[in-house]
Amino acid sequence: MHILKGGDYSCRDDENGVLRRVAKTILRRRSLPLRPHSVQRRSLAAGENPMTSRAQTRLAWRPIFAFLLGWLLWPALATAQSLCVFDIAGTKGPLYSEMSEFALEARRWGVTLTPRAYIDERVASEDFKAGQCDAVLVSGMRARAFNAFTGSIDSIGGLPDYTTLQQLLLTLTRTDAATLMVSGPYEVAGVLPMGAAYLFLRDRRIDGVEKMAGRKIAVLEHDAAQVRMASRIGAQAVTADVSTFAGLFNNGQVDVTAAPAVAYLPLELYRGVGSKGAVIRMPVAQLTLQLLIRREQFPEGFAARARAHFPARYPALFDAIRSAENDIFFFFPPPDGELPKYREMLRQARVSMTADGIYDARMMRLMKRVRCRAEPSAAECSDSLE
Hints:
By secondary structure, this protein is of the alpha/beta class. Among the domains are: 3-77, no CATH class; 80-196 and 286-330 and 374-382, Bacterial extracellular solute-binding protein, family 7 (D-Maltodextrin-Binding Protein, domain 2). The chain has 15 helices and twelve strands. It has helices at residues 18-29, 37-45, 50-77, 94-108, 121-129, 140-143, 148-151, 162-171, 224-232, 245-250, 269-273, 302-309, 314-326, 338-355, 361-374; strands at residues 3-6, 9-12, 80-86, 112-118, 135-139, 182-183, 186-201, 216-220, 236-240, 256-260, 278-294, 331-332. Strands 3, 4, 5, 6, 7, 10, 11 and 12 form an eight-stranded mixed sheet that branches. Strands 1-2 form a two-stranded antiparallel sheet. A two-stranded parallel ribbon has the order 8-9. A hairpin with a 2-residue loop joins strand 6 and strand 7. Helix 1 runs antiparallel to helix 3 (50-77) and helix 9 packs across helix 14 (338-355). The two termini are 53 Å apart.
C-alpha cells in the first residue's frame, strides 16, 4: 500500500488500484475543457477567446471536482490505526470477531481500525507498549500494567456475581469516570465481561481451603496476585501463561487451576477434570477484557464514544458466558460451611494486596460500594478495611 499524490489531493491506494485510477481520471479531467463542442463553436463565432473560455470552465468546475474526489476517497483518506487483538483461536476466534465488528462501527465515526490477531497475549501487550499497536485488546490482568484502576476489576473475590459486575461496568461508562480511564499516554476505550474464574480440580476431594495446602496450582506468571494467593493458602505455585496453563492441568502437572467457563471446551479442561475432578461454583474473580488505546493516535472523544458503545453488547456477552457455564460437567457448589471461609480468605488477601499496591485502592472502594448496595447487611459494609 502506498501514497498517491496529485494536485492538492492524496489517497491511500487499495489493493486493486481502483481508487488510484479514479483519482488519476478526475485529476486529469481537471485540465480538459468540459463544455460541449457546440457551445465552444458558438463562443468562437461570437468572437470569444477560446483560451479564456477553457480557463473559466476549469475554474468553474474545480470546486465540484474537489467535492467529488473527497466524497469518493474519504474512507481511504483516513489514517488506519492498528488494533492488536488477543484471541487464542486467532482470526477464527470470538474476540477477533467482536473487534472486527467494532472496527466497522468505528469506521462510521471516521476511524479506520485494522484488527490483527495475536495468539500470545504477552506479545500483543509488548507490541502495544512498544508502539507497534495503536490499540490492543487484552485481559484485565494484563491491562493493569497500563491502567491500575480498571486493571483491578479482576481482583480476587472482587465481585460475587454478574449482576454486580454489570453494575460496575455501567458505572465506568459515566462521564464523571472519564478521568479514571486515562493513565499517561493510554486510555481505556472499553471493558467487556469474560466471565467468572472458577477453581478447576483434578480431584474433587480438594474441596476446602485447608485441603489445598501442598497441592500444585497453576498461576499466571504476570499476575503477582495469583502467586501471592497460592503462597497464602500453602499451595505450590507453578507459573504458566494463558497458552500453557491448560496443558499443565490436563496433563496432571498441577492439581488445581483457575479459569473462566469460556475456556472449558476450547482448551479441553474437561480432560483434566475427568470423572474424579470438579469445578467449584464460586467465583474467585470476575475476569474482563479491556480495550486500550494510545490517546495521541485517535481523535478527541473516540475512547468515550467507544465506552458508550460496548454496553449494548453486554446482554449477548453475558448470555454466551452463561451458555458456556451450562456446558460444564461436575460443576458443584462449595461444601457446606466452606463458602464463608472462601470469601473471607479472598477478602483478606485482597485487602493485603491493595495495601501492597498490587490493586488500586480507588477501584476497591468502588467495588465495595457496589457489593454493599447489593447486600447491605454484609459484615464488610460496617467496616473500613476497603
